[in-house]
Amino acid sequence: MAVFKVFFQETLDNRIIREDTLTRYYEADSESEVRKMLDEDPYNIEFVQELSPSHLEYEKANNDDFKVENT
């Protein structure tokens, strides 16, 4: 299992604007599995990034609201 960082807008109607981009973290086996998990959500997904171990540690240390979701 790996941890993926998902960059998204809250609704499909929103244009992609960097300042409005939100992020969430998901544990999954692949990027396609993450995208399947989010199929029913109304998010406009910009990018799904698999985190390396060092990047994951950075995110944990520098994001007060860091939480890995499993859906």
UniProtKB/TrEMBL annotation:
GO biological process: DNA-templated transcription
Organism superkingdom: Bacteria
Catalytic activity: RNA(n) + a ribonucleoside 5'-triphosphate = RNA(n+1) + diphosphate
InterPro entries xref list: RpoY (IPR009907)
Keyword S-adenosyl-L-methionine: no
Keywords: DNA-directed RNA polymerase, Nucleotidyltransferase, Transcription, Transferase
NADP as UniProt keyword: no
A Pfam family that the UniProt record links to this protein: RpoY
Enzyme Commission code(s) on record: 2.7.7.6
GO terms of molecular function: DNA binding; DNA-directed RNA polymerase activity
GO annotation, cellular component aspect: DNA-directed RNA polymerase complex
Protein function: A non-essential component of RNA polymerase (RNAP).
Record note on quaternary structure: RNAP is composed of a core of 2 alpha, a beta and a beta' subunit. The core is associated with a delta subunit, and at least one of epsilon or omega. When a sigma factor is associated with the core the holoenzyme is formed, which can initiate transcription.
Homology family: Belongs to the RNA polymerase subunit epsilon family.
Protein name: DNA-directed RNA polymerase subunit epsilon
Taxonomic lineage of the native organism: Bacteria, Bacillati, Bacillota, Bacilli, Bacillales
